[in-house]
Amino acid sequence: MKIYLDGKFVDEADAKVSVFDHGLLYGDGVFEGIRMYGGNIFRLEEHLERLEYSAKAILLSMPWTRAELSEATCETCRINGLKDAYIRLVVTRGVGDLGLAPWLCAKPTIFIIAGKISLYPKEHYENGLSIVTVPTRRVGPGAIPSTVKSLNYLNNILGKIEAKQAGALEAIMLNDQGYVAECTADNIFMVHKGALITPSASHGALKGITRGTIFDIAAELGIPIRESEMTRYDLWCADECFLTGTGAEVIAVVKLDGREIGSGRPGPITHRVMEAFRRRVLVEGTRI
């Protein structure tokens, strides 16, 4: 595997960053997880725009144009001979000293990895997930804005650990007010009386690229959709539920906290959304 690192392609074994890199020392950086299907990088422009916005929000100056980032991403897939891949594009603050001061980092570090990912076993896409609610709360937008896709993922990792301890592959995280924010690595949607409902960014949800695609799919299929406050009770009593994410794609949830959702099987609207998503990923995006 070849890794793009600071303008060069290097072997996997030689892809190294300094121990003084602030991305390592302090989680000071931003990233994007991107998917490629059949040689088509899905919504690359949207991912690069979000990367730019995340960097701007944390005052991380990126010296590359969007065209340069796009070409580097595409070339990473080409040089590795990939047609289907998961791409991780990371920009850190760069090398500095042992203090927090980001202005002492002379230039940012960039690396791009293109490989494979399988977030959930195949049978769960057919039968749905059983998930739980974990004690760890989502960091509030007044602390770290949920719209910034930063390297600070300890909050999500703690939630993922608690999910595993409960025997689940994924878990819901609530915000400080007790409303559903998102899952540890996915956005969440429920179906209630024919409408799709999802938490807003103001409640702690990341503005996911796949999440945004669901809004487009809902418009295409004529399904009402809205952002709203969401409680665990709402999900327990929902007709259907599904998760979305670059890694997860679209996957049904059939049980939450020991309670069956709807029929206990992936529902008809979930199936329609999944099928529409699979069609879109092959035609939307950037060809390498």
Question: Which features does this protein show?
Answer:
288 residues, 29% helix, 9-stranded mixed β-sheet, alpha+beta, 7-stranded antiparallel β-sheet, globular, 8 helices
Which regions contain 5 or more consecutive residues with pLDDT less than 50?
A: none
Note the main sheet.
9 strands, mixed
How many β-strand stretches?
A: 16
Structural class: alpha+beta
In DSSP terms, counting alpha (H) and pi (I) runs of 4 or more, how many helices? 8
* Shape assignment: globular
User: Compute the gyration radius: what is it?
Assistant: 19 Å
Task: Return the average pLDDT rounded to an integer.
Answer: 96
Determine the strand fraction and express it as a percent band. Answer: 25-35%
Name the helix and strand elements from N-terminus to C-terminus, one letter apiece: EEHEEHHEEHEHEEEEHEHEEEHE
Which range best describes the helical content: under 10%, 10-25%, 25-40%, 40-55%, 55-70% or over 70%?
A: 25-40%
- The separation of the N and C termini measures 17 Å
